What does this fold into?
Amino acid sequence: MTESGFRVAVIGAGASGIATGIALMRAGIEDFAILEKASDLGGTWRDNSYPGLSCDVPSHLYRFSFAPNPDWTSHYSPGAEIQAYVRKVARDFDVERYIRYDSEVTRAVFEKGRWRLSGAQGELGLFDAVISATGVLHHPVYPDIAGLDRFAGSCFHSSRWDHGADLRGARVGIIGTGSTAIQILPAIVDEVAHVSLFQRTAQWIFDLPNPEIPEEKRARFRDHPEEMDALYAHLAARFNATFAAAVVGENQAALAEVTQACKDNLANNVHDPDLRARLTPDYRVGCKRLIVSDRFYPAIQKPNAALVDTAIDRIEPGGVRTVDGILHPLDVLVCATGFDPHAFVRPMTVIGRDGLSLERAWAEGNEAYRSVAIPDFPNFFLLGGPNSPIGNFSFLMTIETQLAYVMQLLELLRQGRAREVAPSHAATRAFNAELKASMSGTVWVTGCRSWYIDRNGNVASWPWTFERFQADLERPVLADFDMR
Ligand code: NAP
It folds into this structure.
């Protein structure tokens, strides 16, 4: 132990790492470092800067409870505004001084009761506890299509947007129809000569306008913060009772309502029957993460936009060739092909008790206890870990709940009530057995391909209500932990 007695490493300076730093400071823990691999903070909001980027969770719900923001300019915030918010929170709470930039952790080893962290530059230090705040949608996935590396124009992943690529008058291709692609296309369609959207799977789209929040309203929130709190509580309650409950099978009426709204959106807003048929999914609403947009259908019907739903055969220097032999000539190719949400802390090597690697512990699937801790990996905690509520949720609400829980476990360590805390195998097994059994009641397993499902067929999200998540993580059940 250090002079201060207790030393914590936080991995990642995204929104969750910043919130962790603030929680540590508030708990009086000053001896900590936030280790960030990049040279700036913000995580997903730093990495993503594509045209049209916004968050489809209401602005006043997508914020830290301890840092309400009266200044959101629209109901669903643009990405740059969220990045500015995260930066401001870090500055306002004076947490930036704990961030060590350009410090990627590549290895964490539990040795004699402490975690030894190291990276490319060598040793990063010894810590009593580690909180992994490495995000969920972080590792870009490029499509496994022959010839991708032979494309002659500009080709990049949506989360690595090449702002040097001139889109004006260009022929642009977008691979993918997830939330990202559906935001990019309307944002660029008026600027480019032509845009082709390469669709492998059609998506259900919920029609939601994004009105501005007028300055008078923002001024009112500044003067009456209690009204913001009331709005947050209202949004959270409504969301939890409707959509969040619907996808886990706890509110069939709400699911039916969202389903009808998506069907109506398609029927009312896509005029050509052939295009409408090609945009009609063959799986249930909510099975894949729901897309929210009032801009996509108008944009894909513009004369310079084309939906290409014939499968891609290969990529050639001049464009994308589909299996019908047609070459779609392109100057710019955007891979809006998503992320690997099942990596968690990997590719970091993590070695717990008795030399057990996380790779081995998770060989048959990622399993955590209540999403935050892993047997045999003492004093190592996860934010956004396996089976966190993810999808159409406010991730900030999720991590705040997990963080409050983790802080209670840290307190046990700090008070010396235990030197090592890890969930027991029995409790973790029982939790995961219940979790897997409960997945059958969710809409995610009703027959679609989605990033929620890993290569072992396990669903990555939380199969119960958000209220249950909050209840389960309110207080640690100490009997479930192996404390030494
Ligand atoms: P995604 O939802 O995983 O979508 C990836 C798309 O790429 C899918 O349409 C997929 O097709 C397609 N694809 C992948 N490999 C392909 C291949 N080899 N050939 C053809 N198509 C291929 O990724 P995303 O759109 O980046 O979104 C990821 C998540 O980020 C979202 O679900 C959401 O949680 C988050 N996000 C949130 C917001 C927000 O507003 N809050 C905005 C953007 C992103 P298939 O469907 O057939 O697999």
Remarks:
- The chain has a mean pLDDT of 96.
- The pocket of NAP is lined by residues 54-57, 137, 143-145, 158, 175-181, 183, 200-201, 289, 312, 336-339, 449, 451 (CB under 6 Å).
- The longest strand covers residues 114-119.
- The longest helix spans residues 395-414.
